[in-house]
Amino acid sequence: MKSWGLTIELRNRKAVEIYREMHLNQIPEIHAGDGALAAIGIKTMQIFFMQPNMLFMYMETIDEFSPSREFTHALTLDPKVKAFDDYVHGELLQRVFMNDGPTEWAVMDKFYQFDSRPEPVQY
Predict the structure, then answer these.
(1) pTM, full prediction
(2) What is the maximal distance between C-alpha atoms in the chain?
(3) How confident is the prediction for the chain on average, in pLDDT?
């Protein structure tokens, strides 16, 4: 199991509202148990918001997961996945200034981890 932290910025306050609404009204082709996120190896994903416009995504994935490869592959799985991604990345999100990586979301390096569970969670 691999864990990931990624960050990106929303363009403005209106984008924050639209992005939140789009995630409240989930698209099954993306978010269902057999949707694109599960198909590319994401076991769990959480997105956190920080004022004024920052997002932080936490994911746990299969060990072989590569964000640029898997997110690109997800776009081929269903036209609704590509339409969602095209809109979100075209209209709502913008790279953070320090991101020169291959994905819109900036991949963060893990700096520290604490886990008090007696055994790792099995998926």
Answers:
(1) 0.88
(2) 44
(3) 93
